[in-house]
Amino acid sequence: MHSRVLPSAAKLKAWGLALLFCVPALAVANGGLSLHQLADLAQIGEQQISPDGEHIAYTRIVPRRPGKDGDGPAFAELHVSDRGGASRVFVGGEVNVGGLAWSPDSRSVLFLAKRGGDATRRVYRIALDGGEAVPVFHLETDIRQFRLAPDGARIAALAFEPEDEALKKLAGQGFSQRIYEESARPVRLWLGRLGAEAQKPRAVELEGSVQDAAWAPRGDALALKIAPVELIDDVIMRTRIHFADAEGRITAQVETPGKLGAMAWSGDGANLAFISAEDISDPREGRLMLVGRSGGQPRDLVPNFEGHIWQLAWRDGRRLLFVSHEGVETRLQEYDIGRDRVQPVLAAGVGIWDNLSVSADGRRVALGGNTPAHPRELFLLEPGARAPRRLTDSNPWLAQVRLATQEVVRYRARDGLEIEGMLIRPLEEQPGRRYPLILTVHGGPEAHYNHGWLSSYSTPGQAAAARGFAVFYPNYRASTGRGVAFSKANHGRPAAEEFDDLVDGVDHLIDIGLVDRDRVGITGGSYGGYASAWGATYYSERFAAAVTFVGLSDKIAMMGTTDIPTELKLVHYLQWPWENWELYTRASPIFHAQKSRTPTLILHGDADPRVDRSQSFTLYRYLKVLGQAPVRLVLYPGEGHGNQRAASRWDYALRLMQWMEHYLTGPGGEPPAYELDYQLEHWTGAKDEAAEAAEGAEAPQPALPDEPAQTRLRGAVG
After folding, report:
1. Cβ–Cβ < 8 Å for 90, 110
2. Other Cβ atoms within 10 Å of 140 Cβ, number
3. Which CATH number covers residue 575?
C-alpha cells in the first residue's frame, strides 16, 4: 500500500488554495466554462405574452456579484420584448419583480414588487409606452400572488392574514414565542378593484388556506386551490380545487386524488384543465385532467401516459396546449377536446420547455426554453412556424466559451431495467484515457434531468468538465419523466435498487472505457444528498469522495423532524416507522457508517425545515468519531433547503470542486484547508490577500496518474 509523509499544516493550507485556483485559469485558457462564469450566468425567469400577441413581458434573473452587490438572492428585472426580439428594460437594477400579468388591452404590464419605502409587496402597473411604475393595489401583508379579472378592473389577491395587533404588541414586549405549527396563519383570498383607494379590499371567508386562484374568462367565477391549513405537508398532499362565484362563495369541489400542479380555464369558460397526481401515492403531479365548472370527478385526457405533464395553456375553448416531459426530452403537444385527440406541435429534441403562455387569439405561443448550449431563454412560436424563434440572449459571452460534449446515456441496471441519464464528457477528452467522474444525483426523488442546461452552483457540469472531469446525471428508478409506475419503483424500498442504479451507471461508464474506477466522486442535494451519504457509507468502496448537501442520514429522526411526514409516508415509505423500524434503520446511512472510508464533505443550511440540520450533524459526528476517513461539516446561516444567497452559493461551488479535485485528482490524504480564497477581484477588481499568499506558496507535486485515489487516502491516514 502506498504511503507518504504528510506535509505541514501551513503547506497544506497554501497548497489547498493553489490547487483550487490554478485550475480555473487553465480552464478559461482552454476555452471551458469557469466557476466565475458559471456564477455570472443570467437567465429568463417567468414570462407572459400580451393578449394581442405583439409583446412578451419577462423577468431576467441576474445573479448578485459576491463582494460587489451585497449578499442576497439574485435580482429579478422586468423586461419586455417585441415579436422581433427587441427588448427593453422596464424595471432594472437591484429589484425583485414577479407575478407578471398584462392589462386586457395589452397597453400595460402589472407585476409584484416591494419598492422604495413600501412596507409590503404590492401590485404595480407600468405602461408599455413608457413612464414610471405606479402602485395600484396593496394589502397589510405581502401579496404572494394576484390574478387580474378579464375586465381589467377587479383583482383577486392572495396574502397571509394580518397578524393580530395584540400579539404584535406582546411580541414587542418580549413575548415572541411561537407555538409550533399551531400558530401558522392562513393565506386569504382578497377581492378588490385596482386603484380604488377609497374601497378597502375584502377578505373572503373561506375554510382553509388559499394556494392559487384563476378567473373564468367572463369574470363570473373563480377556480381556487385550497389547503386545510398553511403547513407544507397539507399544502402538498391535501390541497383541493374548488369553484366559487365572483364574490368568492364556494359553488363546487373537484375530486382530486393527490398532488396538484397548474390549472387553467378553457377559452369558453366551460372547463378547467389542471395537472394532478394519479392517486394519493403518486410521487408527482403529471396527469392532464379536465373537469366541468360544476366540479366532481375529473377526466384523465392522456391516460397511461409514460411521462409527466407540467405546463399547460389553452388556445381557445377546444384546443389545449401542454408540455410533456418524456425521458430526458420535452415535447409541446395539443389536445383537441372535440376530437379527443393529441397531436404534436414541437417534437422532442428541439429544446427543454418549462414555461408556456398563449396570446388571446391562440395563434402565438411564448415559451421559456433551455438547451445544452444555454440556460433558460425566451422563445416565440409564430403561426405556421415549425420551430420557435429565440428572442433573448442573456449571456452573449457564452457563445465564445467552448463547451464540453453532452449526450444521453442508456444502460441496463443489474435487474435488467433500462436507466438513462445525461453525460458531460471531459472538455479535452483524449481517446484511450480514463477520467475522474463526478456522479451528480438529483433530489426528490420525484424529479429528473433533461437534455438541456445542467450546470449550476451545486451541479458542476460544464465547469467540472473544463477541469478534466466527466460528469454523469442519472435518472435512477423513482425519477419522473417515465410515467407513474417508474416513479413508484422505489415505494417501500428506499436505498435499495434505486441506489444500485447509480453504481450500475458508474460501472457502465467504466466498461466503455471513459471513467477511472478509482477516481469516482458522488454529490447531490436533498434526496441526492441522501444518495451521496449512502455512497459514502454503504457503497464506500466505490467512491473516493462524497459531497452531500441538505441530505438525509437517519430516516427515523428525519421522519420526526421534517415538515413533510405525511408526504414521505404516502409516496415513499408506505409505512410509519413504528410499523417497520427495521425498514427505516437499514435505509439510514448512519447504520452503515462503520463501512465508510470515503472523504466526506457535508453542507447544510442551518434553517432547513425540510431536512433538519441534525441529519448532517449526526452523519458528521458518526464519521468523525470513527475516524476512518476525513470529514468536514459546513453550515450556511439562514439558508433553508438549498442556498439562495450569492455568497453561500459561491462558497458552495468552490468547496464542492475543491473537495473533488483534492481527492480525485490531487494529493488526497488530509482534507484541504477550510479557508477559501474567494477571488472576489473578479467582481470587485481588488485582489484578495489570500490569493496573493497562495501565489507565493510552494506548488504541490501532482499525484501519479496510476495511483488510485482511495489508495492515496488510506495510505495517508493509515
Report:
1. no
2. 14
3. 3.40.50.1820
